[in-house]
């Protein structure tokens, strides 16, 4: 198949100079200048922003929170991203790959504990054996759950044919973080070679949409060299590219990565946490009907970080159900929480945190993105 470039264009237009955050969200557009202001606001404006995004979530998609059981299948990776603790050139982590039996056991746990979905996440590989293995695992998980478990993949950039093969085998969501929509910044946090191009990342997101996936992406918040204007562009990209689900959180530096040398340029972790919460709130306000994850990185800074994100508009949470024997080796960033929690304990704690955030746990449901349903006309409820 010939290469067909996929071009995304940010939405432009004439918007109100001052955005009133109490207006009806269905009738409002927010321009870049106003987003920058909202990302950096404080005091009463911040309180109103958070209150508004919570109300938008509750009136648009409800206060339900969906569980995605996270299975980190391997930390082997062919990529060398400059921020990542499992990059191929890092000799520190003990490399592992879960066996088929371990992955199936984790999926069975999710089924038995009434999770609606699981996420298979791992370092990037694209060899034939890996691609085929994932396809067979997808088919087996669908079989053992009688089709009841929804499956999200987060396995990096692949060919369009691979995306189609995995979709046909039973995956229906895919999370591929763009990391930043500023191409210059993207190049600063990736090696300068053909395996790490901004163009391919964009094309991959387009291929996922064209295949039929509920397509997710996300960014790191508080990177060195990143500005509030960059983050505003990220938010506008999520809207203009019709992204169905977003997982984003604070950038957390890892000492065994090249980007660590720029740690003197970083905001404090508390500032990055606050900025991340503003991103969640602004995104819910800008695109009311998509799925937003309360990510683990928030909890790494503040034990209640995920609860805070749920309180202001997030609606997905991902308990880690990876076997404890290998969980500590999947360390994308330093001081990752939950390394010594078993799957049952992790599930119990997260259900408690959902309830503390004035939300309702939705067990046994896929929790498909309402934005995806609007985008595709699919009204199936699972």
Could you characterize what this model shows?
The chain is an alpha/beta fold. It has one domain (28-376): Aldolase class I (TIM Barrel). Helix content is 41%, strand content 12%. The strands form two sheets. It has an eight-stranded parallel beta barrel with strand order 1-2-3-4-5-7-9-10, surrounded by five helices. α1 crosses α8, α2 (43-60) packs across α9 and α5 (160-169) packs parallel to α7. The longest helix has 18 residues, at 43-60. It starts with 31 loop residues before the first helix and ends in a 6-residue tail after the last helix.
Total individual domains = 1
Helix content: 40-55%
- Please, what is the oligomeric state? single chain
Instruction: Report the structural category.
Output: alpha/beta
Strand content: 5-15%
Give the class-level CATH name.
Alpha Beta
Can you tell me the residue ranges where pLDDT is under 50 for at least 5 consecutive residues? 1-27
Reading the helices and strands in chain order gives: HHEHEHEHEHHEEHEEHEHHEHHEH
CATH architecture term: Alpha-Beta Barrel
Question: Biggest β-sheet, characterized?
Answer: 8 strands, parallel, barrel
- Helix count from the secondary structure assignment: 14
Q: Report how far the terminal alpha carbons are from each other.
A: 34 Å
Within the largest sheet, what's the order of strands?
Answer: 1-2-3-4-5-7-9-10
State the shape: globular
Chain-averaged pLDDT: 90
CATH superfamily, by name, is Aldolase class I
Number of strands: 11
What's the gyration radius in Å? 19 Å
- CATH topology call: TIM Barrel
């Amino acid at each position: 198949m010939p290469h067909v470039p996929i071009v995304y264009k940010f939405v432009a237009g004439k918007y109100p100079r001052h955005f009133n955050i109490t207006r009806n969200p269905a009738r409002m557009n927010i321009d870049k200048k106003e987003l920058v202001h909202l990302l950096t606001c404080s005091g009463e404006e911040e309180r109103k922003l958070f209150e508004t995004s919570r109300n938008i979530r509750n009136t648009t998609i409800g206060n339900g929170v969906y569980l995605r059981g996270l299975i980190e299948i391997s930390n082997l990776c062919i990529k060398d991203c400059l921020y990542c603790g499992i990059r191929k050139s890092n000799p520190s982590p003990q490399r592992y790959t879960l066996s088929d039996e371990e992955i199936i056991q984790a999926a069975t746990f999710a089924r038995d504990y009434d999770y609606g979905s699981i996420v298979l996440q791992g370092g990037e590989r694209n060899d034939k054996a890996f691609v085929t293995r994932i396809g067979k695992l997808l088919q087996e998980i669908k079989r053992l759950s009688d089709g009841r478990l929804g499956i999200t993949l987060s396995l990096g950039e692949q060919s369009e044919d691979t995306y189609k093969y995995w979709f046909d085998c039973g995956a229906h969501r895919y999370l591929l973080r763009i990391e930043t929509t500023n191409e210059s910044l993207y190049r600063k946090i990736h090696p300068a070679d053909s395996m790490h191009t901004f163009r391919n990342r964009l094309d991959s997101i387009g291929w996922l949409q064209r295949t039929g996936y509920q397509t997710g992406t996300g960014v790191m918040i508080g990177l060195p060299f990143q500005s509030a204007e960059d983050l505003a562009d990220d938010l506008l990209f999520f809207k203009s590219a019709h992204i169905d689900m977003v997982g984003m959180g604070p950038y957390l530096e890892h000492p065994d990565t090249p980007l660590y040398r720029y740690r003197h340029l970083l905001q404090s972790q508390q500032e990055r946490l606050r900025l991340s919460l503003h991103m969640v709130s602004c995104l819910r306000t800008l695109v009311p009907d998509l799925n937003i994850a309360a990510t683990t990185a928030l909890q790494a800074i503040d034990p209640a970080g995920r609860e805070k994100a749920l309180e202001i508009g997030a609606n997905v949470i991902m308990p880690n159900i990876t076997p404890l024997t290998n969980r500590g080796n999947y360390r994308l960033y330093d001081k990752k929480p939950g390394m010594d929690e078993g799957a049952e304990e992790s599930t119990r704690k997260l259900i408690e945190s959902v309830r503390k955030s004035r939300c309702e746990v939705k067990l046994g449901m896929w929790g498909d993105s309402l934005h995806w349903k609007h985008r595709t006309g699919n009204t199936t409820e699972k």
